[in-house]
């Protein structure tokens, strides 16, 4: 126990508990584990390694200088959402487990980024030059002028573009056949490209598809199996259903979760299911016989 | 020799951390962990949650160090960030569809263990004093905690609570008046 003089005017001594060193060290160990390998506390290189590293670094620098164009890559960890402003002040919100690559030497007349995973874009218009902005993904390119839209290329073999404002031109590319196609989109439309084919639907509340940028999740009769895929993609936890019947349970509504723990709890409460995280795998079960 | 926790020398460590120095980062954790942990515990009365919140805070700090500002009052900055995490935790659990109202102000609860009476006033029960503290408004309770338990100055308190300097001062003054009024050692 530690106590200090009473503060001016305070008629008693405030007492603060002592925290054991052991607890602080334990906390630090846990934090270190949560950080990427480059994080603090990773082993320090020996002197010779530093030298070798420096030499290699110089070689790399030379190589990097020679390799044109050069790109900057921004990656997000599981559970992380990151806001990025491009040099033309376009806003990109990158969802978890995604990456965005763009030229270091940015030119406003030729704006393009390469996306893996999911991102939300608020593209700055260039009315004078009318310069386009292109988002490249594996399955399609989205060409825009100034607009707000969401691209989800996080699901293998499927990419979804949803348009909140403005106009976009989507250029599909079939890797196998080499076929290309051009599709125009207007606000409220959702374009899904899958297995070389595309389908266009409208969504009255298309902005819900980018609700994730505010840590909001929107579900509309979404089967738990699909939620499980989202969990694997966004939080990196493989999902195992204890009973297959749980896969088809449907989820509707909005929830807000800033991290996996919150998401997990929200899901438990709304669906009356039990979620247990064991060795990184998420087990979904239920104590309710009516659900099985 | 490490700087005093409430001194501004910590800004050097903070700046080193911003530049990616892992040792400086660990030093910040080591130095501020006890204060942060106790503060979190006061806000949520849950050891596990307090620990989780601190881990989340430091993980986020490291991952986002490129976009963090230089700060003058490191302790106040950390407390404010931790407070936000704890409040978000409260909020995140609320489902919109369940129409649960959001808490924007943590409710600190004092206990007898937080209080040591002056020798001449030992006849008073610490429990009673704690009850007086708990009768204050949530904001007043928090100001008292930040001022007297964490020894922040009013500029820092204002920053943590997101109010202006004068409001922090007024809150504290009103709280002190109430405490003194209810704190009548002789008699009762």
Q: Which stretches of chain A are poorly predicted, pLDDT < 50 over at least 5 residues?
A: 1-6
Strand residue content of chain A: 35-45%
Distance N to C terminus of chain B? 49 Å
Report the uncertain regions of chain B: 94-103
Number of strands of chain A: 20
Helix content of chain B: 55-70%
Q: Main beta sheet of chain A, described?
A: 13 strands, mixed
Order of helices and strands of chain A: EEHHEEEEEEEEEEEEEEHEEHEE
Give the integer mean of the pLDDT values of chain B: 80
Helical proportion of chain A? 10-25%
Overall spatial form of chain B: elongated
Query: Rough shape of chain A?
Result: globular
Structural class of chain B: mainly alpha
The separation of the N and C termini of chain A measures 53 Å
Largest interface: A-B, 44 and 47 residues
**Number of DSSP E strands of chain B:** 1
User: Counting H and I runs of at least 4 residues, what is the number of helices of chain B?
Assistant: 8
User: Based on helices, strands and strand pairing, what is the structural class of chain A?
Assistant: alpha+beta
Indicate the topology.
The complex is a heterodimer of chains A (292) and B (188).
Chain A: E1 2-3, E2 12-16, H1 21-34, H2 47-66, E3 71-75, E4 82-85, E5 91-94, E6 99-103, E7 111-122, E8 133-136, E9 140-144, E10 148-155, E11 158-165, E12 168-173, E13 180-185, E14 189-194, E15 197-202, E16 216-223, H3 224-235, E17 239-241, E18 250-256, H4 260-271, E19 274-278, E20 281-285
Chain B: H1 10-18, H2 22-44, H3 47-63, H4 74-93, E1 115-117, H5 126-134, H6 138-149, H7 154-161, H8 165-182
Helix pairs in contact in B: 1-2, 2-3, 2-4, 3-4, 4-7, 6-8, 7-8
How would you describe the overall organization of this protein?
The complex is a heterodimer of chains A (292) and B (188). With 292 residues, chain A is an alpha+beta fold. Helix content of chain A is 20%, strand content 39%. Chain A contains four helices and 20 strands. In chain A, the strands form four sheets. In chain A, strands 3, 4, 5, 6, 7, 8, 9, 10, 11, 12, 13, 14 and 15 form a 13-stranded mixed sheet that branches. A three-stranded mixed sheet of chain A has the order 17-20-19, with helices on one face. The longest helix of chain A has 20 residues, at 47-66. Chain A is globular and about 70 Å long. Chain A starts with a strand and ends in a 7-residue tail after the last strand. The model of chain A is unreliable at 1-6 (pLDDT under 50). Chain B is 62% helix and 2% strand. Mean pLDDT of chain B is 80; it is low at 94-103. The relative contact order of chain B is 0.10. The termini of chain B are far apart. With 188 residues, chain B is an all-alpha fold. Chains A and B meet through strand 2, helix 1, strand 18 and helix 4 of A and helix 2, helix 3, helix 4, strand 1 and helix 6 of B.
């Amino acid at each position: 126990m530690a106590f200090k003089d009473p503060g001016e005017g305070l008629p008693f001594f405030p007492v603060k508990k002592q925290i054991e060193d052991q607890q602080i060290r334990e906390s630090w160990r846990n934090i270190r584990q949560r950080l990427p390998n480059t994080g603090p506390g990773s082993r320090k290189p020996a002197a010779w390694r530093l030298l070798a590293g420096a030499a290699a670094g110089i070689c790399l620098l030379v190589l990097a200088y020679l390799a044109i164009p050069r790109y900057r890559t921004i990656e997000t960890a599981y559970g992380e959402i990151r806001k990025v402003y491009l040099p033309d002040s376009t806003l990109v919100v990158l969802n978890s487990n995604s990456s965005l690559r763009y030229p270091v030497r940015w030119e406003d007349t030729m704006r393009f980024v390469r996306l893996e995973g999911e991102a939300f874009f608020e593209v700055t218009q260039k009315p004078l030059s009318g310069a386009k902005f292109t988002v490249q993904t594996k399955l399609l390119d989205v060409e825009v002028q100034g607009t707000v839209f969401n691209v989800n290329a996080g699901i293998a073999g499927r990419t979804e573009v949803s348009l909140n404002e403005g106009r976009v031109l989507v250029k599909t590319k079939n890797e196998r056949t080499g076929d290309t196609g051009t599709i125009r989109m207007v606000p409220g439309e959702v374009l899904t490209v899958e297995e070389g084919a595309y389908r266009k639907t409208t969504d009255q509340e298309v902005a819900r598809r980018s609700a994730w940028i505010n840590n909001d999740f929107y579900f509309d009769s979404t089967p738990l199996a699909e939620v499980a895929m989202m969990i694997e993609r966004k939080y990196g936890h493989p999902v195992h259903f204890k009973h297959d019947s749980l896969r088809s349970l449907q989820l509707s509504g909005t929830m807000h979760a800033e991290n996996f723990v919150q998401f997990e709890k929200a899901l438990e409460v709304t669906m009356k299911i039990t979620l247990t995280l064991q060795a990184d795998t998420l087990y979904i079960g239920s104590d309710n016989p009516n659900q099985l | 020799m490490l700087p005093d926790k409430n001194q501004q020398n910590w800004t050097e460590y903070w700046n080193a951390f911003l530049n990616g120095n892992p040792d400086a980062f660990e030093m910040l954790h080591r130095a501020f962990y006890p204060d942060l942990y106790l503060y979190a515990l006061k806000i949520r009365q849950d050891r596990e949650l307090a620990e989780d919140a601190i881990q989340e805070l430091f993980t986020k700090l490291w991952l986002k160090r490129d976009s963090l500002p230089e700060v003058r009052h490191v302790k106040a900055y950390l407390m404010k960030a931790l407070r936000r995490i704890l409040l978000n935790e409260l909020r995140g659990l609320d489902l919109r569809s369940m129409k649960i109202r959001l808490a924007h102000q943590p409710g600190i609860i004092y206990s007898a263990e937080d209080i040591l009476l002056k020798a001449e006033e030992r006849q008073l029960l610490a429990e009673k004093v704690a009850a007086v503290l708990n009768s204050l408004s949530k904001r007043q309770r928090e100001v008292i905690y930040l001022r007297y338990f964490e020894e922040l100055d009013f500029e820092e308190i204002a920053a943590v609570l997101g109010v202006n300097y004068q409001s922090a001062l007024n809150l504290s003054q009103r709280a002190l008046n109430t405490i003194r009024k209810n704190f009548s050692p002789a008699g009762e």
